[in-house]
Amino acid sequence: MNIQDNYLKNKKNIFFSENKDIQTHRNKLINIFENDRFDKKNNESLKNINLKNFIDFKYKYLIPEETSVIKNNHENSYSIVSVNGQCSSFKDDKIEITKILDEDYNDFSKNDTIENNDHFVNLNSLFLNCGFKIVIKKNNNIKIKISNIITDDDLTIFQKNNYICEEGSSLNLIEEYENKNNSTSNILNVIKLERNSQLNHFLIQDNSPNHNLIITSHSSCKKDSTFTQKVYNFSEGYVRNFHYSELIEANSEADLQGIFFLKDNNTSNNKTFVKHLAEDCKSNQVYKGILNDRSKATYFSNTHVDQVAQKTEGYQLSKGILLSDNASYFSKPELKIYADDVKCSHGSTIGPIDENAIFYLRSRGMSKIAATKILISSFINEELNSIDNEQMSEMIQNKLVRYLSKVK
Amino acid sequence: MFLEIKDLSVKIENKNILKSLNLNINKGEVHAIMGPNGSGKSTLANVLAGKEDYEILNGKINFKDNDLFDLNIEERAQEGMFLAFQYPVEIPGVNITPFLHSAINSKRKRMNEEEIDNLSFAKLLKSKASDLGINIDMLKRSVNTGFSGGEKKRYEILQMSILNPDLAILDETDSGLDIDALKIVTDGVNKLKTKDNSFLIITHYQKLLDYIKPDYVHVMVNGSIVKSGGSEIAAEIEKDGFQKFQ
After folding, report:
1. Is A404 in the B-facing interface, judged by CB distances under 8 Å?
2. Per the CB < 8 Å rule, is B74 touching A366?
3. Which residue of B has its CA nearest to A369?
4. Alpha-carbon span A154 to A271, nearest angstrom
5. Binary contact (B77, A354; C-beta < 8 A)
6. How many CB atoms are closer than 10 A to CB A7?
């Protein structure tokens, strides 16, 4: 079934299909799908995947029976269970959680940082069927943990979430994706940081082989705000992490990091893109991958420095370890600099595990497998040590041990 | 015989490096191998330690009644062989203390000895480090990472003193060391020397042998040992160079 027919058939279940502006936008998106020749060479969103499987899909969505938000008063923390992309409404003096609204859709559809040929984002906008908005109120410092649950097989989740950190607020957000069923989640997070706010966003991804997870995020940072994102991808199913950041006012920062652990025939596509649109801003983009068996990954990193963005600091780094001759990792760093007073760098190192280091460790009595495991752990040691949440650190360590147990 | 190398020929990437090399080392002996650059000294050290880049064309090596070629790299280490590297490898993210703790326990396990616990190991490490003038803070760092040349060599000797090998191969341990560091390192080696262990010292210069007295000195040229004798050979090399042996 083509996109248009699929959309028309399921229109009644799709959010905001009665809104004229949104309908106009969606018609444009349908045109893009119909006229695009899906040129894999020039479209980063198409690398390593068969888009046909994602375009020619059977739409299925179930409204969940139960969702929950639990507040823990002692620690200013909240536990949210998001089921099929939906979340209960909640309000207190620190946060407000609501369903996503038409205006949130419109607000995002006007943003041009995400290219209009990113078909996954376009599918998300077309078939939107769930999502929520969380506002952290002014000057509050809170923690939120979201468990993302999918209830049934063959669901197609198209979810849009908005996070707004009001002035002076701080949010520590941990999101877990651990789904065992045969479904597809296509999630777009739109994140706004007002002045002097801070958001640390951790994403732990550990889905089973038949679950596809496509996450795109777009963050915008106002003056003196800091956005940090750390992605830990242990999934055995396909994962796409595309994360965009705009530094729109002075002295703001974006730090986008990710680690992925791939094996078997799994694939992961990753992208980070930081736009420096104001002076004195900093960005950091670091992705590391460990690939075994016949797994494949891509990582595109991009720093764009506008001509007004003087005194920019922008750094990119990509590293990969290939544990098998059949694994592949394609990395493409890009810098576009239009200002003249900047410090920017990029680097990319991908290769097999260092044989000299293996020899050194074995010559002290360690077995080859123990030496390999210790070198893999050391490769991501800095990232693991930087996790200051004990519970999360333990969870990541356990997942790493599980991954390493399969390394031969 | 403790270590017996018989008619050993080795090549790497179509280049013959060791050619019918013979060498015997008994328990409690200190042997020195001297030779010009490219004579195959480090290749010999690497082949003994088990590095897999080399192709063994001919010959046999027996170590403590084992056919050495039947043992892989870690088994050789666990049997009591230790190579102090000429260029110790930097391994960021691997902390020295747990790494050495794991190394000593892998050896003890093979020897059917009880594993050493955290506290006893910490005490042992602290005392050995202090003997070698190694700052305790250095033990919190990653293996060889950010170390100066002298620190790396001292750290190799620290590992040796912890693992207490039966046969220690020192591959140009003196290179890159100033006179004070050389003294600390050689003192460390001399302290380890007993009638039950042996040393194979590879060096270009006599200087190292002023501090560690060898029982035998061998001259290696073009992949073979061309002359063997006592300390007088080292003095001869110091005076006239390697030219006359080539």
Report:
1. no
2. yes
3. B74
4. 27
5. no
6. 21
